[in-house]
Each structure stands twice: as C-alpha cells, then as structure tokens.
Amino acid sequence: MPAPRTLPFKISALVFVRDESGKFLLIRRNKAPNFGLWSPIGGKLEMAEGESPFECAIRETREEIGLELSGSDLRMFAMISEKSYEGGAHWLMFLFDAKKRIRALPENISEGAFGLFGADEIEKLDIPETDRVLLWGVWEKYSQSGFAAMRAECGNGVRATIEQAETFGNR
C-alpha cells in the first residue's frame, strides 16, 4: 500500500466585505485556488514575517480593494481547517466580517474581477463547493454574534464537522 501523500499546509484569511446596502463583495478569481469562481477577498498569511490572521486580513483588504481597516474593524467569526483542498494543499482559514462598508465596486485587479451580490444571489453563482457547504452558512449563523471552528474533508466531495461552535446572544 503506498504511503499517504504529504501536502503543504497553508494559512489564509478571508474577509467578508459588504457595501452600504448589505451586498457582499466577491472576486471572480483569475488564478488558483478557485480559478474562475467567486469568493470573498483574502489571501495567505506572510508566515515568514510572523503575520497574524488579523494583520493578513487588514493587508489583503488594503491591497485588493484599497479599504483601510484596523483590528477593531474586523470580527473573526470562524476558523476552518480544510484537508486536501483541490488535492493540492491543506488550508487553515480564518474568516472575518468587516464592519466598515464600501461605497462603490472596486476596480478589477490582477487577482480577478469584483462583483456585488445579495445573500440570495450567492447560491446561484459559480462558487467553490467548500464555500457552498461551509462559508455562507457559517457567516449567516456566526458572523454577528458567535464563533465556529470547523474541519472539512475535501477529498471526494466536502464533509464538514463542527469542532466547536458558540453563539453569544444579541449584540
């Protein structure tokens, strides 16, 4: 029996940004992972520099859409560990809700093109299967007043397990 394949482990931050009407800003990615699919903005932590997930979320938001955030403008609402995503890597993702809103659609960047979508439109978009299974339900349930830690097996389909979840009541 062959030894299991060793995959790199990558760490990222995703930022859920909305406009003043509450529509979500998504990027249709021009490169892997998620090439050609709509996703929240974000990117990989600069691990060699010791960047924290909050620092990464702030940097990526500034680089991708020019929105300046501080740590108090972000609310971390989930952590998701994806095993064998697209067969190429394991991912640890930190999910943030941005409290600051954008006023206009940002200009497209080399990473992809931007669009604004209502929550009811997202399920009809070309989005990664993991986002369909994990991200949007977690955002809905925990982004305003809770936290979830999840694990996803991504080998054949997506199987999600909630490892810890907590809601904090109205805030």
Task: Walk me through what this model shows.
The protein has 171 residues and is α+β, with helices and mostly antiparallel strands. The chain is built from three helices and nine strands; from the N terminus they run ββββαβββααββ. The chain has helices at residues 53-65, 119-122, 129-142, and strands at residues 9-18, 24-29, 38-39, 41-44, 74-85, 89-98, 112-117, 146-153, 159-167. A hairpin with a 3-residue loop joins β5 and β6 (89-98). It is globular, with a radius of gyration of 16 Å. The protein starts with 8 loop residues before the first strand and ends with a strand.
Helices, by number, come to 3
Order of helices and strands: EEEEHEEEHHEE
User: What structural class do you assign from the helix and strand content?
Assistant: alpha+beta
Radius of gyration from CA coordinates:
16 Å
Largest sheet: 9 strands, mixed
Task: Please provide the count of β strands.
Answer: 9
- Give the termini separation: 53 Å
- What would the average pLDDT be, to the nearest integer? 92
> How does the overall form come out from the CA principal axes?
globular
Q: Low-confidence parts lasting 5 or more residues at pLDDT below 50?
A: none
Helix content: 10-25%
Strand content: 35-45%
Itemize the secondary structure elements and their pairings.
Blueprint: E1 9-18, E2 24-29, E3 38-39, E4 41-44, H1 53-65, E5 74-85, E6 89-98, E7 112-117, H2 119-122, H3 129-142, E8 146-153, E9 159-167
Parallel strand pairs: 1-6, 5-8
Antiparallel strand pairs: 1-2, 1-4, 2-3, 2-7, 5-6, 8-9
Notable characteristics:
171 residues, alpha+beta
